[in-house]
Amino acid sequence: MKNGQNNEERVRGKIRMKNRNFNGGVLTATALALVLAGCGGKEGKPAAGAMPAPEVAVVTVAPAPAELTQDLPGRLEAYRTAQVRARVDGIVEKRLFREGSDVKAGQTLYLIDPSTYRAAYAAARAAVSAAAQVRDRDKQLLQVQAVSQQDYETAVTSLRQAEAALAKASLDLGNTRVPAPIAGHIGRELVTVGALVGHGDATPMALIEQLDPIYANFVEAGADELRLQKAFASGQLQRAGAATVELVLEDGSVYPEKGKLLFTDKMVDPSTGSIAIRAAFPNPAHQLLPGMFATIRFPQALAERAIKAPQRAVLMNPQGSYVLVVKDDGTVAPRPVKLGPMAGPDFIVEEGLHEGDRVIVDGVQKVRPGMFVKIVSAQPEAGGVSGANQHADAAHGEDSTTRHHAQGE
């Protein structure tokens, strides 16, 4: 009995070893089904018990006008930035804002002890009053020649000096209430209540950033710009008329608000060989923050007859890029392609695809070259991919698969 159990365990171990070899790439289940189908006596006849044809979704490509875009890395920057600074010396008495809130321009943020400046203002007012009395007295005495013209002019000058001192005292007293220079989002406080500020320097007290709109700064290689200008000159491409741009966030999602291209620098940075570009995006919900990395997608040119392929349909191997197409007989074939610039989320295919080719976009993981497939849906794509006959494509794919299986029978 024990020897029988040992033999059973050895048989099970051999089966597990064969399964590992099978799964390791010696022969997949799908490939085995194809081999059995090929041995059925007639071409295209599936063997008894063969796996059904895998289901795939395709798009039918067709030349169409397309807007060529380029994705460039960039960084976000606040539309405006202003430091809140103390303009007079003194002890901070109160903080009148909430950290991390939005403030309005001119809103009082801090209160500096005003007692010294209030006293100075009162003294300056008294000095102006006294100087005005001296001037009025000398003016009357000048009329009877009791004082000289020089004495009168000295009194007038003294009054003006007193008025200037009063104006400065009033300004200093007003500066004890520290206002927000711009409207925007204020961060954390940089000084605390009780701190001495403005002693010999304009002490930074907080930072305000205006986030709506927000800048996006990015760069383009000077060589790319040169190639683009040559394509314009030769008539191969046309200039894109729109100045709107898109923002692709770090998680791959596209920001819903369109941006506006503000300027493209006309100078190449000698240290990097790149050209600076800036765009602005609406940011009403403050979803975009200064310092964030993002990808800016902006239109470069227009192509009259371009063939596009969705990104998910393009595969890579050591030889380069390729796609899987469904042939007229319902089987899968690899097709090497040469990729050009982007057109939104799609690739422009410069070589390798032709009008009418059916490119697999969903189900590429389930198929291999030479397999029969069943087209269950054909997803339409915007521009460069024909979706008008998508249901016909699906029916054609089903008929071709069924027809070849029937011929085998």
Can you walk through the features of this model?
The chain has 409 residues and is of the alpha+beta class. Helices cover 30% and strands 36% of the residues. It has 6 helices and 23 strands. The protein has helices at residues 2-26, 29-38, 115-143, 149-174, 222-234, 390-408, and strands at 55-61, 64-85, 90-95, 102-103, 108-112, 177-179, 184-186, 196-197, 204-221, 238-239, 244-248, 259-268, 274-281, 293-306, 308-310, 315-317, 320-326, 332-336, 338-343, 346-351, 358-362, 374-378, 385-386. The strands form 4 sheets. Strands 1, 16, 17, 18, 21, 22 and 23 form a 7-stranded mixed sheet that branches. It has a 6-stranded antiparallel β-barrel with strand order 2-9-13-12-11-14. The protein has a 4-stranded antiparallel sheet with strand order 6-5-3-8, with no helix packed on it. A hairpin with a 2-residue loop joins strand 16 and strand 17. The longest helix has 29 residues, at 115-143. The chain is elongated. The relative contact order is 0.19. The model is unreliable at 1-46 and 380-409 (pLDDT under 50).
Provide a compact summary of the structure.
The protein is α+β, with helices and mostly antiparallel strands.
